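Sequence of TIGR02217 family protein (Sphingorhabdus pulchriflava).
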Amino acid sequence: MVDDIRLPEKWSKGSAGGPEWRTDVVPTASGGEYREQRWSRPLWRYEIAHNIKSIDQMSDLRAFHLARRGRARSFLLKDWLDFSSAADGVSAAAATDQPLGTGTGAATQFQLVKRYPDSVSAYDRAIKWPVTGSLLVAVDGVPLGSGFSVNRGTGIVTFSSAPANGAVLTTGFYFDVPVRFDEDWLSVTWDTINSRSAGSVPLQEVRE
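Predicted 3D structure, token representation.
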């Protein structure tokens, strides 16, 4: 279960993080290697400790950590390096940024994705937590003003009427990443009379 609450931006801005894959690499007798991809999707990991300094900030983080019961309850994170449907991850979203699908004349539901292009092997990332009110949709390049909705938690876009057969559907949006604290223990250090710090506050993406 994901608590529909975003980690305050004052803590997430400037955080370090990115995707991690799981690949087994086994050397062979001839000096080559055998590689087995264990995960079909990466997990994003983050570290936010360096953004939390003041006594008030640390008190707020402690309350947030307690409310999540440590690692038990997940929440939402704005990844400041990749929060937009735009190709660079940070520019303003546009209705033609990302592919949504092709109309069949019958289908009304389509999964929101962000595509990371590559000439050999592009990667499509399912987006399940678009920011409320940010979704833009276009049909054959023409933006729609209404007639669609999106479910936060699944990222399923539903049209009130099925798009025509062959219609090219595209989207633009901002999105959050569902994460959890990666440690049940929140370790806080007394630095000065007016300052506290946390040795490490790692976060890990969750797959519901």
